[in-house]
Amino acid sequence: MTNLRILLGGGLTVLVILTALVALVWTPYAPTAIDILHRLAAPSGLHPFGTDAFGRDTLSMIMAGAENSIIVSLAAVAIGAALGIPAGLLAAARGGWTEELLMRGADLTFAFPALLTAVMITALRGPGAYTVMIAIGVFTAPVLARVTRTAAGVIWVQDYARAARALGRGRGAVTRVHILPNILSVLTVQITIQLSLAILAEAGLSFVGLGAQPPAPSWGRMLNEGQTYIYTAPFLTLFPGMAIAVAVLGLNMLGDGLRDAMDLRRRRRA
Amino acid sequence: MKTSSLWRSSTLLAGLCTCLASVPALAAPPDSLTIGIALEPPGLDPTAGAAGAIRDVTYDNIFQGLTRIDEAGKVVPSLAKSWTVSPDGLTYTFDLQNGVTFQDGTQFDCSIVQFSYGRAMAADSINAQKQLFAPIAKVDCPSPLQAVITLKQPTSTFLYNMAWGDAVMVAPKSAAANKTHPVGTGPFEFSRWVPGDRIELIRNPHYWGPAPKLAAVTFRIIPDPAAATAALLSGALDAYPDFPAPETVVKFQHDPRFTVDIGTTEGKVILALNDARKPFNDIRFRQALAYAIDRNAIIEAAYSGYGKVIGSHYTPSDPNYVDLSGAYPYDPAKAKQLLQEAGVKPGMSFTITMPPPSYAQRSGQLVAAYLSQVGINVKLESVEWAKWLSQVFSQSDFDATVIAHVESRDLDIYARPHYYFNYDSPAYKALYAQYIAATDPTQQAALVEKLQRQLSADEPNIFLFALPKIGIWNAKLKGMWSNDPMPADDVTQVYWAQ
User: Fold this and answer.
1) Which of B135, B331, B344, B458 has the fewest CB atoms within 10 Å of its CB?
2) B271/B293 Cα distance (integer angstroms)
3) Minimum-distance CB partner of A228 among B245, B366, B381
4) Of A183-187, B188-192, B291-295, where does mean pLDDT reach its minimum?
5) How is residue A41 annotated by DSSP?
6) Which residues in chain B are contacts of A232 at CB distance < 8 A?
7) Among A242, A241, A214, which residue's Cα sits nearest to residue A227?
C-alpha cells in the first residue's frame, strides 16, 4: 500500500516535472501564439486539449504552465525552508526565551493567510511570479519552523544527544551531527506536502490575478479566463483543473507514502 | 391544554404556509428592479468626476439638466420645457418647468440655473468637463421661470452639451454633499449606498413629472463576468444593461426567460498613446502600430464578434459619421517598413497599462501579441481604476493604455491643450474652432467629417472598435434602453409587464 502510494505519487510528480522540462525546449505550439481563426476549437488531433478564446493551444499553455507552477512552488518552499528550518533548529537548541520569541513569531506569521500576504506584497511591488513566491514562502516558513522544532525537540532529549552535550560538544555541533540528520526524513515529508500546497496556492493567487502576469501562462489564470466559457467550451477549465489536480495529488500521495515508509513505529507494526 | 396547543401550532402552521406562499411575490415584486453594473462609481456627483459609472446611476434617474438626451441620442426638453435661439446663435432663452422641487425641498427656478452653471465654471470647480461651459458669457433671469443664456461665440453643440451629466442642476444647500448623498430633481431619490456592493434608489414622491412605475431601483456592483452571468441566471439580477461577458450571450439568447438586446454605445475602445513621449510622437510609429493590429480579430476574440471597427474617434451611430475603418488595414509588412522608416529597432519595448474591465484586459493582450509579430515587445501592466485615473488620466504617466471613451461625440478632447494622451495639432485645433463656431448645419456636417478624417490621418491613438451595448434582462421587463447614446442607465420608463 505504502509502496503503491510512493510509486503512484512519484509517477505523477515525475510526469509533471517531465512536462515542465519538455516545455523548456518544446511545446506543440508557442504557448502565447494567437490564432483567432481557430479560436475556441474543441479538442482534436491538431489541438488535443482545444484552443482558448484567443486561439492559443491549451496543451502548450498547460505545459508552459507546469514550468511556472514548479518554479514558483520550488522557489517558495525554498524561501520557506531557508527561513523556517534554521529558526526551528535554533528554537529547539536554545529553548527559553529564544524559543518563545521564534515560535510566537511563527504563530504570528502563520496567522496571515498566503492570500493576504500576497495582497500586501502586491501593494508594495505589484503582482507577478516573484510576489507569489515570497507570499507562499512566508506562509510556508512557520510550518517548517514548527515541524523542525518539534522533531528536533524529540531528538534533543535522546540519550545520545544528551551524552554529546555532556561530553562538551556545542549546541551547533550537536545540531549538525545528531539533530539534522535524524529529522531529515520528517523534513522531506513536510517539504513534499508544502510543495503540493504551494502549487495549490500559486493557482489560487494566479486565479485572482496576483500571480504571473499575462501573457505568461499559468494554470490558475487559465481557469479564471476559461470560467465564462464554461457553457460553450468546458475544456478550457477542465484541462488546467486536471493539471492542478494531478500535480497536487501526486505530491500528496508521495508525501503520505514517504511518511509511512519512514515512520519506524508504523513500519514495525506492519 | 392539549387542544389549545394543537390549535396554536395549527395557526403557526397556517402562518408559515402564508409566508411560504408569499415568497415568490417577495422575490420579484412587480415594482422594484435590481440592475447589475460593472464599475462602482467613485462618487455620485456627476459634476465632480469623469467616470461613466457616476452617470450610469444618476443620469435622469436622480439628476436632470435643462436638456436631456433620449434613447435615440436626440436633445429633448427636460427642466427646460422649451427654448428659442437668437438668429446670431448667441442668445438662448429657456422656459423652465413650473413647480419643480429638489429632493431636499429647494425650489427649482432660474436662480438654480445661475448657481449650477456658475459653480461649474468657477475657478475652483472640479467639474470634469469645464470646457462645456466655456462659451457661456452670462446667465440672466428676467423671471423665475425664464433663463436667458448669452454666449461669447456661437456654439453649435451648446444644447447637446447642456444635456451632459456634467451640466445637471444642483441645489445650493446640498451641492457639496452630492458625492455621497446626491440630491437632484429626478424621479428617483438616493436611499443607500453599501460600498462595494449596491446603491439603492427609491421613487421620489414629490416628482414634478409623471411618476415612475418602479418604486425602488437597486444597482448592484458585479464586475466579474462569471459572477454577472450567475447572478442573472439565478434571478439575483433583473437586468444587466452593459453585460460584461459577451461569450455567454449565446446561452441567454437560447433562454426564453431573458431578453438579449444588442445595441450601440458611444464607447470608443482605443489604444491610447502618450504622444508626448518618444517614439509615439512620430506619426510613422503610430501608423505602424495601426497597420500591425488586426482589429476584426480583436473584436472577435475580445468581444465575441460584437462591436464595429472604427477608424477615428467617432462611432457609426453618431450623426455625420465617416467610415474610416479601412484606413489602416491589417498589414504587418507595411508596419515593419514604417517602423524601419521611423528608426525603431526590433526589440523595442513599451508598456500597456490596462484598467480592470475585460475588454481592456483582453484587447491589451491581443495588441501585445500582434505587436510582437512586428518586433515590438509589449509589457502588460494591470492596474486598479483608482490607479489608472491618477497615473494615466490625471498625471499622463504612461506609454500606452487600452480604454473606452464613453462620452458621446467627444471630438473636443483632441482639441484640449492638456489631455492625457497629449495630442497637439494646431491644424486640428483650428478645424475644431471652426466647427464650434459654425451655425449652418451643412457647414457643421462638413467640418465634423473633416475632424474625423484629420484624426484618422494623424492616428494620435489607435482606434480599435465601437463598444456594443449588450443588454440582458428579464423578458418581462419593458422600457430598458437598447442603445447608450450617453453613459446612462435611464430607468425612468421601465416597468414590469404582467
Assistant:
1) B331
2) 10
3) B245
4) A183-187
5) P
6) 247-248, 250-251
7) A241
**CB-based contacts of A21, cutoff 8 Å, min separation 6:** none
A34 touches B at CB < 8 Å:
yes
Q: Nearest CB to B297: which of A36, A214, A231? A: A36
When CB atoms are compared, the residue of B251, B301, B380 closest to A231 is B251
State yes or no: pLDDT of B20 exceeds 80: no
The answer to whether B382 contacts A34, with C-beta atoms less than 8 Å apart, is no
What residues contact residue B376 under an 8 Å CB cut-off, 6+ apart? Answer: B289, B292, B339, B344, B346, B348, B349, B350
Q: Which residues of B touch A230 (CB under 8 A)?
A: 226
pLDDT beyond 50 at B4? no
Task: Point out the least confidently predicted range of A147-156, B63-72, B436-445.
Answer: B436-445
Torsion angle of the four alpha carbons B350, B353, B354, B355, in this order, in degrees rounded to the nearest 10? -170
Note whether B226 contacts A227, CB cutoff 8 Å: yes
Cis bond before residue B279 (omega within 30° of 0): yes
Is the CB of residue A54 less than 8 Å away from at least one CB of chain B? yes
Q: Does B368 touch chain A (CB under 8 A)?
A: yes
| B297, closest residue in chain A (CA to CA) | A36
Report the b/e string of B418-441 with b at 16+ CB within 10 A: ebbbbbbbeebeebbeebbbbeee
**DSSP run (H or E) holding B93:** strand B91-96
* Cβ–Cβ under 8 Å, residues A47 and A59: yes
Give CA–CA dist B493/B498, Å, rounded.
16
pLDDT at B458 over 70: yes
State the pLDDT at residue A1. 67
DSSP B444-493: HHHHHHHHHHHHHHH-SSEEEEEEEEEEEEETTEE---SSBSSS----TT
- B300 at the A interface (CB within 8 A)? yes
The residue count of chain A comes to: 270
Residue in B222, B240, B243, B248 to test binding to A, most A beta-carbons within 10 Å: B248
Query: What is the end-to-end Cα distance of chain A in Å, rounded?
Result: 11
Contact B64, B77 (CB under 8 A): no
Q: Which of B2-16, B74-88, B109-123 has the lowest mean pLDDT?
A: B2-16
Q: Does the beta carbon of B260 lie under 8 angstroms from any beta carbon of chain A?
A: no
Helix (H, G, I), strand (E, B) or coil at A24: helix
DSSP B338-400: HHHHTTPPTTEEEEEEE-SSHHHHHHHHHHHHHHHTTTEEEEEEE--HHHIIIIIIIT---SE
Cell numbers found for residue B488 = 446612462
Residues in chain B: 498
Question: Between B225, B370, B380, which is nearest A214 by CB?
Answer: B380
Cβ-contact B110, B145 below 8 angstroms: yes
Q: Does B301 touch chain A (CB under 8 A)?
A: yes
- A59 with A48: CB under 8 angstroms? yes
For residue B273, give how far its alpha carbon lies from the nearest alpha carbon of chain A (Å).
20
Tell me the nearest-neighbour CA distance from B213 into chain A, angstroms: 34
* Residue pointed to by grid coordinates 460593472: B38
Judged against a pLDDT cut of 50, whether residue B25 lies above it is answered with: no
Inform me whether the C-beta atom of residue B227 falls under 8 Å from chain A C-beta atoms.
no
Q: pLDDT class for A127, splitting at 50, 70, 90?
A: confident
Contact B472, B248 (CB under 8 A): no
On the question of pLDDT at B12 being above 50, the answer is no
- B233 neighbourhood in chain A, CB within 8 Å: none
Average pLDDT for B10-32: 50
Alpha carbon of A268: minimum distance to chain B alpha carbons (Å) = 53
pLDDT bucket at B408, cuts 50 / 70 / 90: confident
**Span of A135-139, B183-187, B215-219, B382-386 with lowest mean pLDDT:** B382-386
